[in-house]
Amino acid sequence: MKAVLVKAPLEVEVVDVPKPEITAPDEVLIKVRYGGICGSDIGIYSGGNAFATYPRIIGHEFAGTVEAVGDAVKDLAPGDLVSVDIVNSCGHCYACRTGHHNVCKDLEVTGVHRDGGFAEYFKVRREMVYKLDKAKLSEAMACLVEPYSVGAEVNARAQVSEGDKVVVFGSGPAGLAIMQVALAKGAEVLITDIFPQRLQLAAEMGATRTVNVKEEDLKTAVMDFTAGEGAHVLADAVCSPQSILDALDLLAPAGRLVVLGTGSAPSEIPQMAFTKKGINVFGTRVNNHRFPEVISLFEQGKVTPAKMHTHTFKFTDIARAFELLRTDKSQVCKILLEW
Predict the structure, then answer these.
(1) Which residue has the higher pLDDT, 131 or 261?
(2) CA–CA separation, 225 vs 305, rounded Å?
(3) How far apart are the first and last CA of the chain?
(4) Which pLDDT band holds residue 224 (cuts at 50, 70, 90)?
(5) CA 167, CA 14: separation in Å to the nearest integer?
(6) From CA 23, how far away is CA 222, in angstroms rounded?
């Protein structure tokens, strides 16, 4: 079968690899139909993802139909539409024992630390597979359950609830997913970007307020949005050394900051930035069993993942898709690969 392999930074190829076969009773073989390109995939390709190891078959946003199941799998059948969680944990370390398996000390993320789903077929344990209602979700949208699970995890970490004034830095796919989950919880959301096209998309997806930081003073806008209090919750999906400093400045006293960055560039943060306001800072990584919540949001129509889908490529055109993401960020939101 063919698969997308990043051999080393800036080296991506479509290669032939053996088709996986079921060898254990709890395994599921999936015929991959669609995959979404994530910022972390770009980071693996560019060398900017500090978590990645090489060579790697990438892909952690993917979905498809069941091809075959092991003898112990009784609740899935060939043809079922499924999405796959990509968090592989040990189950017994401190993080796992305390309900945070997504930051397991030996965490392996599918598509980052172990080979991923950008291949014609993918084999996985039954416990990682979620069946979807074909009457309510298309095959293309099924692969976006995973990125929305990241948005759900951010909201859970920050305990977003009705009435919160949430600020999201960045109107890319991660920011939009965070925004829509927050809106579904009854929060109001101000979201930022530098591209008018992305902010228009954010508005169409329900943003309470959008701010082009090249044209408008962000602090003035946030203070107006929050009646002078500052953000109750701020999710930093821009992930630059400066953005975390800006976030700390914009938060209300006792506010909650969620940091999504995977880069290793340091940020110079004075201790007072945390202590003066009593800021709560949360790191977030992948998701902690958020697929059921997200699937419910999808099936109830409380989020609109189709709106962020801007381009589709055959999976063999992965290099061209990466190039488009690199050169035209204003027009591209979510690229889907099709098998």
Answers:
(1) 131
(2) 26
(3) 12
(4) very high
(5) 39
(6) 55
Peptide bond into 55 cis (omega under 30): yes
How far apart are alpha carbons 179 and 177 in whole angstroms? 5
| Residues 147 and 36: beta-carbon distance below 8 Å | yes
CA angle 72, 77, 83 (to 5 degrees): 95
Residue 263 has pLDDT above 80, yes or no: no
Task: Return d(Cα 286, Cα 261) in angstroms, integer.
Answer: 11
Tokens coding 46: 């560019």
Which of 181, 146, 147 shows the shortest CA–CA distance to 164?
A: 181
What is the H or E stretch that residue 311 is in? strand 309-314
Tokens 């699937």 belong to residue: 295
Q: What is the mean pLDDT of the chain?
A: 96
Q: Is 253 exposed, middle or buried (0-12, 13-18, 19+ CB in 10 A)?
A: exposed
Residue type (1 letter), 87: V
> Which two structure tokens, joined as six digits, stand for 284?
């977030």
From CA 276, how far away is CA 262, in angstroms rounded?
27
pLDDT digits (tens, 9 = 90+) for 70-85: 999 999 999 999 999 9
> Beta 108-109 vs 87-88: how paired, if at all?
antiparallel
The structure tokens listed for 16 are 């032939």
4 and 118 Cβ atoms separated by less than 8 Å: yes
| Threshold 0.85, pTM exceeds | yes
**H/E element, 98:** none
Q: Measured between alpha carbons, how far is 292 from 300 in angstroms, rounded to an integer?
A: 12
Estimate to the nearest angstrom the gap between the alpha carbon of 329 and the chain centroid: 17
